[in-house]
Amino acid sequence: MLYKRSSELFQEAKKYIPGGVNSPVRAFKAVGGDPIFVKEAKGAYLFDEDGNRLIDFIASWGPLILGHAYDPVINAVIDKAKKGTSFGMPTEIETELAKLAISMVPNIDKIRFVNSGTEACMSAIRLARGYTSKDKIIKFAGCYHGHSDSFLIQAGSGAVTFGSPNSPGVTRGTAKDTLLANYNDLAGVQKLVKANKGEIAAIIIEPVAGNMGCIAPTEAFIRGLRDLCTAEGILLLFDEVMTGFRLAKGGAQEALNIKADIVMFGKVIGGGLPVGAFAAKSEIMDSLAPNGPVYQAGTLSGNPLAMSAGLAMLTELNNRPEIFKSLEDKAAYLHNGISKILTKQGVSHQINRFGSMMSVHFTEEPVCDFASAAKGNNDTFKKYFHGMLQKGIYLPPSAFESYFLNDAISYDDLDETIAAVATIF
Ligand SMILES: *Cc1c(COP(=O)(O)O)cnc(C)c1O
Asked: Ligand 1 centroid to 273 CA: how many Å?
């Protein structure tokens, strides 16, 4: 397949937009080559500026769980747009979406809408700190919670307990309040909590990680975190920006049968428009302004366009819960199909999957945390990614990103995808 016009558009974009993109992973840095410019999309397919049709396995990084340009969502947005796009005043549809989300998700009484997953996580951490009157948080290496300062932290050299900024512009002052632990390592977390006794406001985690490939928590790890938080008066924050309304109606809380204290959403909850949200029991949420002292606000938060897309999406998922089973079945089919071929061809690999999130790692060792995910062979990954692209299959352009299946993908599309894998190695 030719991607000539995309390359030309990329050259032009680079003159006016840093790196030619408005979010770094789009730039293909990890795999090389030029990104694909999309013209339009429908259902399972992207149509690019060169006229190619690609089967899409990222679904805008998760939101489009029912496929692109899904009619009920698009129609809801069009109808709303005609009536005005933002008022900076309350609207009934905010309550409708809040009510529906709360009815679908375990253990939450109230929800606040924002404009991105980043904003949701940033605000949730402020709420946790305000509510507990403590400053420190624990996050896990390889988990992504958006790009706010508190989360752009890496393991400090030498001392494992103190984070250091992993981006210029994040101050050491901020970094010292974020402690870093390893995913699936409960003993490490226990040690951190002990060394910082009474100082930790929150432990924030992707309950099923999707930003170092897909990594599921062990039962002992996630249950252990819950018990530790309860025992120590620490809030457990589930970043369900990826997993929310994807792994089940009630997200990872339901899929793992573990309750979190604050839950953050993004992606699916906006149906493809910019929406984030955070939610908890009333006692915690009532600490937020205007009820309480923890400040948080947004000019376009809860705007009718975004709310109408979210409402149409969640309504569909709520009314047709069989969608989750259908997605899981399709993902399992793809998982098995790819695994069989790579095994037959003697390509070392691990496929991690939880429901409709999955990732292919080119390594012999099980991938259970950031260190093991980082051992994947990136040359093999590049060959795989570009080989698939040549066959019209769009996979995440980084080994650290998860596939997100959408339900518009058919078994014929999956067979085409599996057949493409067979041509690469
Ligand atoms: C995508 C993502 C975010 C950030 O959401 P944005 O809408 O991109 O700001 C936060 N947490 C997780 C787990 C994500 O996958």
From this structure: 13
Say if CB 172 and CB 163 are below 8 A apart. no
242: phi > 0 → left, psi -120 to 50 → alpha, else beta; which?
A: alpha
* Model confidence, pTM: 0.97
Q: Whose CA is closest to atom 10 on ligand 1?
A: 145
Q: Could you identify the residue written with the tokens 């692209």? A: 389
Distance between CA atoms of residues 43 and 212, nearest Å: 27
Give CA–CA dist 179/390, Å, rounded.
Answer: 42
> Within 206-303, where are the H helices?
219-232, 251-256, 282-285
Atom of ligand 1 nearest to the CA of 240: 13
Residue of 21, 119, 211 with the most ligand 1 atoms within 8 Å of its CB, for mutation:
211
Give 248 Cα–ligand 1 centroid separation in angstroms: 18
239 is catalytic: yes
> Block means of pLDDT (10 residues each) for the chain, length 425 residues?
94 98 94 97 98 98 98 98 98 98 98 98 98 97 95 67 79 92 97 97 98 97 98 98 98 98 98 98 98 98 98 98 97 98 97 97 96 95 98 96 97 98 97
